[in-house]
């Protein structure tokens, strides 16, 4: 099993969710997060006063998937999230040692199947 984590622009969330549904993604966790990479924040103006926003709003997606589905899910996310501009985000994959469904005590693949 693998954990796919993606950081994307908030404006691209709905297209990414639609793309994941199309490839048969079984479940997803979405969190509102803040951070920066190459963008290093941005300068905005409010009531004539200029101020710097150092941490930009982003969406964090976490998906547990079988190893054979990882490439399909990554492709769906990257195609739907891509704008071609700086700040489109990142995707990374990590191995999962164990998974437990708290309610039933199921482990492994059975714990993530719906």
Query: Which percent bin holds the helix content?
Result: 10-25%
Largest sheet: 4 strands, antiparallel
Q: Ends: how far apart?
A: 15 Å
- Which CATH top level class fits? Alpha Beta
CATH topology: Alpha-Beta Plaits
CATH architecture: 2-Layer Sandwich
Mean pLDDT over the full residue set: 91
Radius of gyration using CA atoms only: 17 Å
Which word captures the global form? Answer: elongated
Secondary structure tally, helices: 3
Report the uncertain regions: none
Q: How many β-strand stretches?
A: 6
Q: How many domains make up the 3D coordinates?
A: 1
Order of helices and strands: EHEEEEHEH
Strand content: 35-45%
Class computed from helices, strands and strand pairing: alpha+beta
**Order of strands across the main sheet:** 2-5-1-6
Organism: Candidatus Viadribacter manganicus
Subunit structure: Homotrimer.
Pfam family, one: P-II
GO cellular component, one term: cytosol
Describe the structure.
- The chain has 114 residues and is α+β, with helices and mostly antiparallel strands.
- It has one domain: 2-Layer Sandwich (Alpha-Beta Plaits).
- The protein has helices at 13-22, 70-81, 109-112; strands spanning 2-8, 29-35, 42-46, 49-53, 56-65, 89-95.
- The chain is elongated, with a radius of gyration of 17 Å.
């Amino acid at each position: 099993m693998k954990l796919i984590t993606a950081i994307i622009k908030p404006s691209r969330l709905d297209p990414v969710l639609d793309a994941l549904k199309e490839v048969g993604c079984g479940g997803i966790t979405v969190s509102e997060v803040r951070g920066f990479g190459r963008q290093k924040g941005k300068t905005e103006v409010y009531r004539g006063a200029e101020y710097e926003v150092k941490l930009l709003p982003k969406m964090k997606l976490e998906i547990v998937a079988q190893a054979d589905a990882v490439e399909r899910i990554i492709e769906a996310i990257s195609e739907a999230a891509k704008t071609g501009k700086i700040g489109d985000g990142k995707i990374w994959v990590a191995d999962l040692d164990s998974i437990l469904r708290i309610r039933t005590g199921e482990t492994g693949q059975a714990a993530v199947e719906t």
